User: Fold these one by one.
Assistant:
Number 1:
Amino acid sequence: MEGPKGEYINSYVGFPTFFNAPIIGLDDIEEGMTVVAGVPIDQGINLGRLGARFGPRGIREGSYKYRSVQEVAENHTTVDLDTNIGVRFKGDHTMGDIGDLKISPQDIMETTEGVASGVSDIVRRGGLPVVLGGDHYVCYPSFEGFARGMMERKSNPRIGYLHIDSHADFWDQLQAGSRYNHGTSARRISENSTISYKNMAWLGLNGAVLDAEQYRMYKNHSLKMVTARMMMEKGIEDAVKEVLEVAADSVDAVYVSIDIDVVDGSESPGTTACVFQGIRAREFLSLMSALSQYDIVKGIDLCEVSPPLDPTGRTVHLAALGLLSILGPRLFETVDMETGKVTGYQGFSY
Ligand SMILES: [Mn+2]
């Protein structure tokens, strides 16, 4: 099977855009298109191990092999044996990869503006941004850009926020008074004029992640925080429903930020701050599939993938699969293998 330049599509051949999506510019964005953008930074990490700057390229490479499977399959259709349903990529018109947004490795505020400006450009044109981090500072400028773009499309938009992470990233300041880093990003988002505390939710937290100041905020504003343990007790679909009832209540859009370290360090070792009471990889994929059913989700990022910390490559592949799962209905259609008829998206697994 041939790729855009006639080369065989394989994980080590050609230009690794996300899922081999076409490389696009801002003018190519159409209403409803999924637009992938990278933010290759780790300048927001102030306590931990670096390497997230290689995340966007790593996730793109990780995603590439899944496209090659679709391309070599007869009728570009693979069959899920649990359901006997065929899965087919809708085609290149559904998604584009716009490359990496403007960053400044020496100046985090310049990076902030570059990312916010880039994401707002995507949203203004009707694209659904899928931002590849980068450390988890990225969600703050990305949300800022998302809010700016929404403001250009609608007066006084209201936005909900779902933070999927082992950590709350809700510090007001972290280490030496820094207010702009990967531990403060959800707090900075909470200060945006388009969002209310009542529309903020966290999912997948691991136990003791708040200090006393954050705990007071949690109590005073009745913030919705669901731990990994609670999620497993409730069941993934019910937990997703619960957090989205908060994040999606009376809003125009929900922005979802995903930290790959929500997955246990045994299955997601390529990340800055591994935890060891996290959810499993298969539970993460179920969580992403559950989220794919909510159309109110109109902006996504996935952060903290650090390829150099995982020479096995499992983390980049998991991140790529997670994104393909949350984007499922946007990118794939399902086919009745008996009749060949398109049945509408019904979920899938690779
Ligand atoms: Mn985290």
Number 2:
Amino acid sequence: MSETSGQATEILLPSSTVALFSRDQETLVAARDIENDWRFARVKLHVEEGDVLTATEAYKEISSPELIIIQTEMIDDSLAGQLEDLAEHCDEGTSAIVIGPDNDVSLYRNLIDMGVSDYIVKPVDTQIMADIIAKTMIEKIGVTGSRLIAFLGAKGGVGTSSLVQAAAWGISDIMEQKTIIIDVGGGWSTLGVGMGFEPSTTLREAVLAAENNDEDNLKRMLFDASDKLCVLASGGDVMLESSVTSDQIECLIDMLMVKYPVVIADLSHAPPELEKAVVTRANQVIVVSTPTLPSLRLSRSLIQEVKDIRGGNDDGIEMVVNMQGLAEVSEVEKSDIEIAMDREVSTIIPFAASVFIDAENKGKKLIGDKEGEKIVKTALLPIVSKVIDGEVLKSGEDSDDEESGILGGFLNKFKAK
Ligand SMILES: Nc1ncnc2c1ncn2[C@@H]1O[C@H](COP(=O)(O)OP(=O)(O)OP(=O)(O)O)[C@@H](O)[C@H]1O
Ligand SMILES: [Mg+2]
């Protein structure tokens, strides 16, 4: 009954929750296969063997997702009552799609009148299911963009790349957001050491693939650190020449942002023109310094420049002080840093050689260590979640707006009775 345009849904879907209840093995397998669809990286999909009654029982206990898909074999007068009962136990704004056995126009009309968003006739393969969910979620929530987070060192060696990796592991493993890291430093990249891969490509090759819109080639250049964290396996570039332009790096970022909810750019050792391009585009710029005078002095000028580039706006600029305690006697206190910088320090990270250097040398993730996990959770995630959570919130606001629209109607129509 539903016609979806694959073209219109070929984008990374907004963060959302979807549940499917079916007793049809083919449908269950098709739904579980959606996990492999890149568009669904931010969609939490719950697939359960069951029917409308199972769903009703479930939502007596827990809050309902944004979209419920129910498959039913039984199309008779009791279906309307059961759907009504389900709606009673769903949260405001929950939409419903029904999968049924017959191509029956009057049934379709009745269900739509009841507030059901769509009626689909089985069999439903993975492609159809994915397109229908995509279409529904886009209409319901709208398309929200991915996030670009740039880490910029005030000075060399302040720990920028280490914090990039630590934050990436936290965002992917703990916040469960599909994330990609790119090192804009080209031949100066040390990511391979910390993330445990041999550079198999160059930043130049990657930007050329992006310019040619060659997704397959670009895909081959990625190293999967886990199922949610991926790294551009570059680093083979020449070191003493810059071979990538700012337009090219933007083109690569554009391409990655279509598929990854979070793109993290390591700007330590990147040429200034590329730093500028990324800083201009980024949703968040994290400036890393140590608590020592030379680094703080550069931070002050750097943050001012970043602010100017971003139209004089301070939003999204964060200052992280790393390696506190490395040289205690010559370090500046947090309160003095804040007075001198005329801004708040977002977080202070202690010098913890056993955690950072050990993780780096062994190519292990920082959050694999208790102390490392604590640093990530308490110092880094609160900062990045300002931009990543913001997006989730926005989705919620959008969905509220939609409640009076076509797709939010499932519940409202029942509740209005
Ligand atoms: N908080 C910390 N405690 C202890 N060691 C740290 C800390 N942060 C980073 N390091 C270590 O400091 C060294 C330099 O870190 P890293 O390579 O991340 O710095 P960088 O700023 O990216 O350097 P570059 O300017 O060369 O790109 C690494 O050996 C790393 O393990
Ligand atoms: Mg670095």
